[in-house]
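Quick one, tokens below. Sequence please?
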């Protein structure tokens, strides 16, 4: 059994000593990957801790940071933990208005910026938020006393020992995305987060020889705990992706054994392979699909046909191996969280020989509450409760004959509460301390949890049937022609969907079918394109229940993004904003 860590400071200290000479963080500079060891990072953490202390930052202070994943981000995090200060992470892609709201809400004493561009934005935030005494730049030169380099130099000259935080001491404030209003600060203590890290020590097959390519933001609780803390606790290494559009290239360069991701990345792999298969000769397509059927049957305990049995090793050698090579060639495991992964996509990735362990949780649960794992793995589920966590299904808000209900979570991973939100704290917990997730799901006889929707998103059609739109949307987005969609039907006769075409895929189709359009706007308005979108929705919604059918489709010329305010930084659609913007289009679908 692995030793239990007391807190994040203890975990970092033990790992830094145990794995001192091993690679920890990889960053691509000047076209080359350069690696820092556990010992080198530990020195940076100690030096920055001293530098921050010299600025007067102390236990109980909140230190906000706006930066993408980078080595300095992790150094800042562990330096803050050692001082007893709480880290408040934000996204570079976030609206600067939210930077203002969050830093003001938590009374941040310091604001740390990643890039030079972000630094300028942070200086403007500091002008509006009186509590901010220091704006620190990760990339500033050592001549600037508010640079990382200067602070580390000062800390090396005047070292400060790390404290030993208690289980209730705040480690970080992670603000939720705010899909229905302003972000809320989730108070996560050292006890909360370390309970997650301890729970996976013997549960997940990660070791010092493993490596991940990091692109899931550490400002998101899944990346923060599952990748940064867990990988570091296991002595594994983390390569930092250059950018989203460089992920595929970086995969082949660093050859990770593990990926931590949200379904969107796996969906892209699924879409890309299926697009390429559609362009291959019919015999290759037949071979591919026969091999997929063989793998699916074996997983379900069925016997493949003779043709399927023959097809599998051939396809594995000729086709599957090329897909795995695109992902670096060494990928063994993929951990998916943040949203439900389509069964089709999970089975597809699994058939390639890459085991997908899907889990579930929220920022408020540090975040892992359940997870699939070796010896307890069921595709379609989000696994069983992790150590010391209990899942309860509350059916008080669903119909009496419903299989599912609201998921309640009990355990040491459950947050301390929302920062300065007493009323919302009362609503978030049951009388006996269970956290109300707002998610719908059910437990099977063996304790595997299945997610069926989101309580706040659940709506009732005029016929009285309840619809959970998120699982329907995930299914529709498997179409190679559809980049995004939102299903709607609150108190209506039937469901409709607003869909965003995958324009790079759509344009060649349009040219082939005689559609000449000068812009995405014109493409979205073309009758042939609209007919294609409806046909794709019908095709991928074929397994929906009768009342879930999407009868009409509206085609949008632009995607839901953080820039236009229709998407949160954690890639959740802001339904309220989309409904407000496209109310007229929705009404037209019902005429």
């Amino acid at each position: 059994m692995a030793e239990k860590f007391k807190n994040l400071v203890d975990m970092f200290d033990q790992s830094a000593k145990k794995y001192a000479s091993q690679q920890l963080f990889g960053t691509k500079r000047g076209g080359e990957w350069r690696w820092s060891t556990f010992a080198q990072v530990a020195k940076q953490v100690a030096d920055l801790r001293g530098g921050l202390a010299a600025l007067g930052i102390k236990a109980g202070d909140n230190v906000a940071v706006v930066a993408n994943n980078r080595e300095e981000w992790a150094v800042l995090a562990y330096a803050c933990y050692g001082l007893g200060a709480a880290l408040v992470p934000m996204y570079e892609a976030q609206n600067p208005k939210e930077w203002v709201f969050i830093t003001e809400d938590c009374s941040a004493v310091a604001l740390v910026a990643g890039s030079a561009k972000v630094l300028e934005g942070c200086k403007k935030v500091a002008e509006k938020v009186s509590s901010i005494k220091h704006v620190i730049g990760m990339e500033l030169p050592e001549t600037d006393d508010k640079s990382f380099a200067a602070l580390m130099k000062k800390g090396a000259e005047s070292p400060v020992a790390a404290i030993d935080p208690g289980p209730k001491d705040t480690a970080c404030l992670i603000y939720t995305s705010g899909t229905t209003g302003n972000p809320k600060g989730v108070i996560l203590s050292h006890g909360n987060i370390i309970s997650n890290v301890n729970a996976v020590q013997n549960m997940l097959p990660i070791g010092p020889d493993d490596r991940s390519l990091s692109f899931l933001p550490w400002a998101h609780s899944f990346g923060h705990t599952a990748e940064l803390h867990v990988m570091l606790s296991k002595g594994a290494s983390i390569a930092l992706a250059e950018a989203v559009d460089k992920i595929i290239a970086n995969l082949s360069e660093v050859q990770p054994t593990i990926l931590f991701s949200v379904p969107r990345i796996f969906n892209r792999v699924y879409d890309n392979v299926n697009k390429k298969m559609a362009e291959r000769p019919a015999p290759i397509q037949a071979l591919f699909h026969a091999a997929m059927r063989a793998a699916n049957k074996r997983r379900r305990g069925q016997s493949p046909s003779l043709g399927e049995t023959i097809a599998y090793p051939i396809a594995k050698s000729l086709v599957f191996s090329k897909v795995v090579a695109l992902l670096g060639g060494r990928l063994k495991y993929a951990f998916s969280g943040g949203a439900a992964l389509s069964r089709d996509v999970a089975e597809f990735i699994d058939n390639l020989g890459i085991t997908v362990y899907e889990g579930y949780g929220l920022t408020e649960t540090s975040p892992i509450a359940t997870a699939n794992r070796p010896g307890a793995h069921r595709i379609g589920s989000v696994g069983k409760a992790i150590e010391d966590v209990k899942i309860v299904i509350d059916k008080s808000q669903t119909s009496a004959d419903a299989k599912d209900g609201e998921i309640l979570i009990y355990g040491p991973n459950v947050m301390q509460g929302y920062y300065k939100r007493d009323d919302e704290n009362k609503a978030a917990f049951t009388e006996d301390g269970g956290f109300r997730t707002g998610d719908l799901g059910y437990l099977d006889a063996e304790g595997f949890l299945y997610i069926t929707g989101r309580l706040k998103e659940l709506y009732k059609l005029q016929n009285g049937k309840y619809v959970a739109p998120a699982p329907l949307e995930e299914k529709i987005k498997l179409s190679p022609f559809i980049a995004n969609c939102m299903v709607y039907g609150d108190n209506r006769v039937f469901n409709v969907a607003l869909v965003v075409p995958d324009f790079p895929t759509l344009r060649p189709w349009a040219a082939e079918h005689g559609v000449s359009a000068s812009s995405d706007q014109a493409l979205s308005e073309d009758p042939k394109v609209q007919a294609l979108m409806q046909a794709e929705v019908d095709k991928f919604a074929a397994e929906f229940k009768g009342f879930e059918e999407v009868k009409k489709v509206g085609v949008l010329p632009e995607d839901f993004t953080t820039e236009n305010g229709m998407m949160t930084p954690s890639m959740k659609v802001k339904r309220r904003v989309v409904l407000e913007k496209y109310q007229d289009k929705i009404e037209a679908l019902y005429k």
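The domain at 459-589 is CATH 3.30.300.30 (GMP Synthetase; Chain A, domain 3). Residues 2 and 570 are 32 Å apart (CA to CA).
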